[in-house]
Model the fold of this input.
Amino acid sequence: MQFLKLRLQNTYAVAQARKKDICGYAPHTKNSAMPDIRNISLNKEKTVVEIHWGDDHKSSWDAILLRLYCQCDRCVDKICLSSLNEDTFVQSVKLDTAPTDNDLLVEIGNDIFDKHVTKISLTWLRLNCYCDLCLNNAIAERQTSFVDPQISFIPSVEYSRIVDDRDAGLFEVAERVMKVGFCVIKDTPTVEETVIKVAEMFAPVHETVTNKMFNVRIQPGPRNTAHTALGLCYHQDLPWYETEPGVQFLHALKFDEDIEGGESQFVDLFQVAEILRKEDPEAFNDLARIPATYETIDYIRAKPAHYETLKPHIELDYFGNVVALHWNPGVEGTLRAKGDDVKKYYRGYNKLLGIIRRKELEWAFRMDAGDIIVFNNHRMVHARKAYSSKENGQRHLQGCYISLDEFRSVYVTLGESLNREVPLFKVGNKSSF
Ligand SMILES: [Fe+2]
Ligand SMILES: [Zn+2]
Ligand SMILES: [Zn+2]
Done:
């Protein structure tokens, strides 16, 4: 298969809002002028300051938050929520008239400091506005957008790019993983443990039950389907950990020409979950509620293992946003659900499985020797087609994992240092942000 570089679209309209805690409201990124203040008022109970901006937007700031986020010299880094009085109210509010400051000044009743006036920059208040519109905008910006495998090239970066300009090359790999869910690094050396060397350019390798590095090849007396030539159905690795390993690196040391089959397959679970939510909300809600069981209990293997955990296939956060997904039929344990939920669970399960198997969602390609696939194990399910060889051809992969948190941090900080746009996509770390 011919690999071509994915041309990433620079259409991240609100990327510059990334440094803001909450608000990603597009017109108020760092390059935008702040709107004027039309009016500032208090609610009847004097617990909320309402700011009516010149562009018609309205922000409501609870007095307790204004006090908590005070930016005056006395408060910065010296106050925490537990030190605030609960019955905080507003005694007075005004704008700083100094032309350069542009601050809101608020006198809070029952302040813990004597003669204290809360001072907060208006720019900060607008950028951190937590109204429904701003919160929804911020969440929408972080949604992963589905990249259609039917019309897109396999996302890839030449290894020589990393050799020539390490920061730029690593960022380009990370950017594709963040946007699409995976990326292929082409033409790395076909030398043992290269996968560890490349992974550790991003972050330390995370040791698991499969050790620092694992081999995927036919082995005698296999205790894992990965060590046969059979097909592997869609799964995420190691879901019986509290949190699955975040980013997987898989290096094709050998993938001989005469091997038939063995193609790698990927599907974006975020896309799958949103299709399920749209097509069958009841199944979606059931799978977000009823836990699946994942386990590996094996006392016979060289390093005995006893791992088990319960978690639903779909995890939602406070906002109802899908923030984590879990799928691995190969290591499911006994369902531990209440009787009424058993039928509902399997109904939802079959619906989800049916969507995962849709051909139009599937990336399928054959690795070349030297390829390293880097993928987000929280977002993508992966699979392998069965393979065979008439001439004793070898297929040998080596793999390892690193932390998704570390990987995302490298993506953002490298992007910043290279002055690239760094949209913060949802990654499946149980958080919308
Ligand atoms: Fe796997
Ligand atoms: Zn203060
Ligand atoms: Zn707002």
Notes: Confidence is low (pLDDT under 50) at residues 1-31. The chain has ten helices and 22 strands. The two ends are 36 Å apart (CA to CA). The first helix runs from residue 63 to 68.
